[in-house]
Design brief:
Blueprint lengths: L6 E2 H6 L3 E7 L16 E10 L5 E14 L6 E15 L2 H7 L5 E3 L4 E2 L1 H12 L7 H4 L19 H11 L2
Parallel strand pairs: 5-6
Antiparallel strand pairs: 1-7, 2-3, 3-4, 4-5
Length: 169
């Protein structure tokens, strides 16, 4: 079944509904500023149900390739995404606070789940903070070149304080 904008949480959990769709990246508005290109799709699979402790949850997987911009060389590169989706559905803030220690909770309001919005949230959370292409990922930071025969030695900051305190300079 394709992924709808919104679902009724209690019905989806009771029926163990499954959703799967290849979603175009161009449809994720909040993701656009982080991508080098909005071309491509994300394969999303989501299943509603109950976990082993009988708590309602969503589980699934997001897969695809995103075009990101390397923060070091500023070139576009392909980044493979394969992110599990595991969200515990809660109905009150007290349940949400308790579930924080065990899982990723999602507060369900009026028994409605914005499923496409949840997919976009999970995509944003899966992105690397500082994307780097393979050639820049393991590169050492540049070291400033030293002039031959010239030794650079920094003055101890405490020595400067000592001079000010005792010599008055």
């Amino acid at each position: 079944m394709p992924i709808p904008d919104k679902i009724t949480a209690s019905k989806a959990v009771a029926r163990h509904e499954r959703f799967a769709e290849e979603m175009p990246l161009a449809g994720f508005v909040r993701l656009q500023g982080l991508l080098a290109s909005e071309a491509g799709v994300i394969a999303a699979e989501i299943e509603a149900g109950r976990d082993e402790s009988d708590h309602p949850h969503l589980q699934g997987r997001l897969q695809g390739e995103l075009q990101l911009i390397c923060h070091r060389c500023l070139k576009a590169f392909g980044w493979k995404l394969d992110a599990p989706l595991a969200i515990r559905l809660v109905n009150t803030e007290a349940e949400e606070a308790q579930a924080l220690h065990e899982s990723d909770p999602y507060l369900v309001l009026d028994d409605r789940l914005p499923l496409r919005e949840i997919v976009e949230d999970e995509l944003l959370l899966a992105l690397p903070m500082m994307p780097r292409c393979k050639s820049c990922e393991n590169a050492a930071p540049p070291v400033p070149a030293k002039e031959p025969g010239k030794e650079t030695r920094k003055e101890n900051p405490f020595a400067a304080l000592k001079r000010i305190k005792f010599d008055g300079r």
